[in-house]
Design goal:
There is one protein chain. The protein is an alpha/beta fold. It folds into 2 domains: 8-16 and 254-341, Alpha-Beta Complex (Aspartate Aminotransferase, domain 1); 31-250, Type I PLP-dependent aspartate aminotransferase-like (Major domain) (Aspartate Aminotransferase, domain 2), CATH 3.40.640. Helices cover 41% and strands 16% of the residues. It contains 14 helices and 12 strands. The chain has helices at residues 20-28, 40-52, 64-73, 89-92, 97-102, 118-126, 153-165, 177-184, 188-192, 218-230, 239-250, 255-272, 298-307, 330-341; strands at residues 8-9, 57-61, 81-85, 105-109, 134-140, 169-173, 197-201, 212-216, 286-290, 310-311, 313-316, 319-323. A hairpin with a 2-residue loop joins strand 11 (313-316) and strand 12. The two termini are 24 Å apart.
Length: 343
């Protein structure tokens, strides 16, 4: 399913093009001024998202970064610390927004696959006082840096309980939450009950052209709307965008297809170069390929793929990240494997 220029683009699931159904929904969307709360399409999307996650309210935002920022800034005060893993998206990939805009610091935990244990929270809180004001725990599920791994539900439940027992609020960066749902069968509302606020993206695995949403209590979302305007996220006839997001959300049942493709790609590479892929990490729609398990460097493989019309991103100089999505298929996976075989 090559792009119009003939490339197969595995850089991210954000590169998808709007489907015909999305384009038609955008063209016919009933709209109003969303800053006044008068856009019926946006309102309907917010109600649907809140209901699916078992939350009282939701607010539509332009990006996952803004959704996460609002989740943190509505519950942590300037100067407060938020517990997260070292390679959390909120800390590493959002241009320092939490610090620059919200005045929020991070207390990091060195742990694999985004998994924070109750003991990690307890250890952080033990050190906390008016000198170290910890007020929140932030999850990321699925965990991007680890290759789309899913945080085990029982671990999330235990750690969130430890955080709440210590008086901490809990935020879930669920940018690809629906991939976690597809991989585990755990209902989205079950994940959401472990957090006070949940952000998920329409423009990643779900495949919409733009948009994310923050879900939480009525009070928190009212505050989030106020801050959304302050941060420059007040949108007007946003139903044109929300319409595409609604189509994407309704199509969330197809995410398992992306996971199957990722398995095919991961297994295909691992059969040729076993040390280059950890198959236990291929849980959703990502495959990490490590250059130290290949006869060429990661950059060398990336270059050869580019010459064959295949685009792929990297999470470090030594590790490539392939992301499957609606706009790649089995033929595109085979194009990748042909290049790897030629090594």
């Amino acid at each position: 399913m090559a792009f119009p220029d003939g490339t197969a683009d595995f850089r991210s699931d954000t590169v998808t093009r709007p489907s015909q159904e999305m384009r038609e929904a955008m063209a016919s969307a009933v709209v109003g001024d969303d800053v006044y709360g008068e856009d019926p399409t946006a309102n309907s999307l917010e109600e649907q998202a809140a209901s699916l996650l078992g939350k009282a309210a939701a607010v539509f935002v332009p990006s996952g970064s803004m959704g996460n920022l609002l989740g943190l800034a509505t519950q942590a005060r300037p100067g407060d610390e938020v517990i997260c893993v070292e390679n959390a998206h909120v800390r590493n990939y959002e241009m320092g927004a939490a610090a620059a805009v919200g005045g929020i610091q991070f207390r990091t935990v060195a742990t694999p696959n985004g998994e924070i244990k109750p003991a990690d929270v307890e250890a952080a809180v033990e050190q906390s006082s008016y000198h170290l004001p910890i007020s929140m725990l932030s999850w990321e599920n699925t965990h991007n840096w680890s290759g789309g791994t899913v945080i085990p539900f029982e671990l999330m439940e235990a750690t969130s309980e430890a955080a709440r027992s210590a008086g901490l609020a809990v935020h879930l960066d669920g940018a690809r939450l629906w991939n976690a749902v597809a991989a585990t069968g755990v209902d989205a509302a079950e994940y959401a009950r472990l957090a006070d606020t949940v952000q998920f993206c329409f423009s990643k695995g779900l495949g919409a052209p733009i948009g994310s949403i923050l879900c939480g209590s009525e009070d928190v979302i009212t505050r989030a709307r106020y801050l959304r305007k302050r941060f420059g996220g007040g949108m007007r006839q946003v139903g044109v965008i929300a319409a595409a997001a609604a189509v994407a959300l309704d199509g969330r049942g197809r995410l398992g297809d992306d996971h199957v493709l990722a398995q095919q790609l991961g297994k295909g590479v691992a059969e040729l170069f076993p040390a280059s892929v950890s198959l236990e990490q291929v849980q959703t729609n990502m495959v990490l390929v490590h250059g130290d398990g290949l006869p060429v460097s990661a950059e060398g493989l990336q270059r050869r793929l580019s010459e064959a019309g295949v685009l792929v991103g990297s999470i470090s100089k030594h590790t490539l990240r392939f992301v499957t999505h609606r706009d790649v298929d089995g033929d595109d996976v085979e194009r990748v494997l042909e290049v790897v075989r030629a090594l």
